[in-house]
## 1
Amino acid sequence: MFEYDTQIALENRKLSSDTLTVNFPNSAIVSLRHTKNTPKVMTIRVNTPGGAVSYIVPGFLDMSRKVIENLAVKYENVAKEVCRQMGGKVLNYEAKDILNRGRAEGEAEGIARMQRAAKLLRMGKSISDVAELTELSEETVTELAQTVEG
């Protein structure tokens, strides 16, 4: 938030012969997940060599409700659903979907390697050969061998 505000302030700076004036924009704290303990407003305190400045910013959820109220005045069901989604009930986004797919694929690949390793061990292959063929560590194959044999 502070970095964004600083960039906006610098874009709209006023420079005189000996003074740089920057005006920070109205801002908000974005909480992707919130609980009953998440504050509705937060005080931002900036300590500078010339003294401290503090200001209050609202939480994103309060701001979103105000925006929704104005944009969806005629559409009560839309406003309710958007508020429910913005409240953190469901937050899906592309990066999260990609991460979850990657985890699932990795888990499936790991299971497949372990199954291949177990099959190779039952065929009488050595632990070092199985480790090399399946790209599993010898320690993992050793542990697996104890369960396959036992």
Note: The chain has a mean pLDDT of 79.
## 2
Amino acid sequence: MRRRYRRLLVGADVYYWGAGHAHVRGQDDTGRPQTIDCREVLTVRREGSSGLLNIVFRAGPGRLVADGLLHDGGVVRGDDDAYLNLHRPGVVRALLDEASHRGHGFDAGPVEIDGWELLDGALERLTATG
């Protein structure tokens, strides 16, 4: 997965972030290669910290990610059409704020967060900021 990292300023803090699409490959019952996990991943790192947040949106029933159906960075929850574009800085900020609100920080090594659990909070933050 190749990403272009961008800079986000939040107060005095500087973050670097990138979004990309990834597949986990495996084998079917006959040993033939197949994709077993399709996902969109938002990676955020705070400058001066060794920690890394990987906010992962996995495809699944009622959960769509960019895999020919959506644009790169697009995630949609099927039951209510809730949508985020992970390439928009405002969306990244909303997800970062929601993750921080839930206690996820940058003090440890890499941390993986289920992005679907942050979706509603991020959407509320986006609506509140207009």
Note: Strands lie at 6-10, 13-27, 33-46, 52-58, 63-65, 74-77, 82-85, 110-114.
